[in-house]
Amino acid sequence: NKAIQLNPKLVQAYNNRGNAHRKKGKLNRAIADCNKAIQLNPKLVQAYNNRGAAYNEKGEFDRAIDDCNKAIELNPKLADAYSNRGTAYADKDDFDAAIKDFTKAIRLKPDYADVYNNRGIAYNRKGEYDLAIKDYTMAIKHQLDYAEAYSNRGNAHRKKGKLNRAIADCNKAIELNPKLVQAYNNRGAAYNEKGEFDRAIDDWNKAIELNPKLVQAYNNRGATYGAKGEFDRAIDDWNKAIELDPKLAEAYKNLGVVYAEKGELNSAIVNFTKVIELDPDCADAYYNRGIMWLNLKEWENFRSGFLDARNVGIDIAIDFRNIFGSVANFEQITGIQLPEDIAAMLTPSS
Fold it and tell me: Residue 325 has what DSSP assignment?
C-alpha cells in the first residue's frame, strides 16, 4: 500500500498486493489489483498468472484458462502458469488436459512438489491409482512434511483396497498437520471399509469438528450409521449433507435405501425420485423406486416408471431377475400377486 501511495504507477506493487489479497481469500480485490497492474503494463506475465489463479479460486475456470494462456504466450517457460492452467482444467473435469499441463510444469521445474500432488489428484480422479500413488510419493520426496500428499496417497491406497497402507499414510498426515480435515475423512473411509465403524465415526466427528460444512463427512458418517443399523442418526446426517449440498444425489439415494429398510416406502420413493431428477441415468434409483411401487401395489406408477427407465436405456427387468430370479419367486417372497402385464414387463425376453 505504501509503495502504491508513493508511486501509483509502480506496477509490481499492484501485482504483489493482488497476490497477497488472493492468499487471504480476498479474490475480488486480488483481481482488481491485477487488472491495474495489467493496465499499466500489458506484458506483465505474473499479473496474468496471479489473476488466473484468483479466477480459478472463484470458480471462473474459463477466465482462469484465458489468463494462463496469456501468461504462457508471454513466457512459455513459466511453470506456475502451466500449473495454474492445469488446476483450472482439473476443476472443469478435463483431466487429460490437466495432466498434460502438470507434466509440462514438472519438466520446467522438476522439484515442484505441489504439481506432483495436483497431477496425482487428476490421476486419482481418472481412476489411475498407481500413477496417482507414484506422483504423491514424488511430492513427498520433494517435500518431506507434505501432509496433504500423504493424505491423498492414503486415499489412493484405499481405493486399491490397501486399507492398512491407507491408514498409515493418513496417520502420518495427521501427525504432520493435526488440523488437516481431509486426512480424518480419508482415514474414516478406510476404517469404514475395514468394518471398524466406531473408529470411522470418530474420524468423521473430528473432520466435522474442524469443518462443520464438510458435506462428504456427513454423507460418509451417515453411511456408517446405516451400516450399524442406527437409521435415525444416518437420516439426520444425510439430511445435513443435503442441506449443505442440495444436489448430492448420493445422499438422496442413501436416504431412499434406509427408508425402505425402515418400511417407510413412500419416503423411499420421494428420495429415489429425487435421485432420478438429479441423475437420470441412475439405474439403481429406477429399480428401487419400482420395487417400492410394487410393494405398495401402485401399478400405474410402476408402469409409468418402467417406461421412463426404458426411455433412458435402463431395463428394470434385468435387475429384477438378478435379485429375485423370477416373478414367481417375487410373488412367493412378498405375497403380492402381480398383474399379468407387469409380470410380463418383469420377465426378460432372453
Answer: S
101, three cell numbers: 499441463
**Closest-CA residue to 54 (of 87, 28, 79):** 28
Q: How far apart are CA 81 and CA 105, in angstroms?
A: 8
Q: Give the count of beta carbons closer than 10 Å to the beta carbon of residue 22.
A: 23
Q: How far apart are CA 214 and CA 200, in angstroms?
A: 15
Q: Give the model's pLDDT for residue 4.
A: 46
Taking each continuous run of H as one helix and of E as one strand, the counts in the chain are 22, 0
Of all residues in the chain, the percent with pLDDT exceeding 70 is 97
Could you tell me the CA-to-CA distances from 292 to 86, 133, 231, 304, 337 in Å, in that order? 45, 42, 18, 13, 15
Does residue 6 have a pLDDT over 50? no
Distances 90 to 98, 100, 111, 119 between C-alpha atoms, Å: 5, 11, 21, 9
pLDDT at residue 44 is higher than 50? yes
Q: How many CB atoms lie within 10 A of CB 33?
A: 26
Average pLDDT over residues 23-31: 94
226: which residues sit within 8 A by CB, 6+ positions away? 234, 254, 257, 258
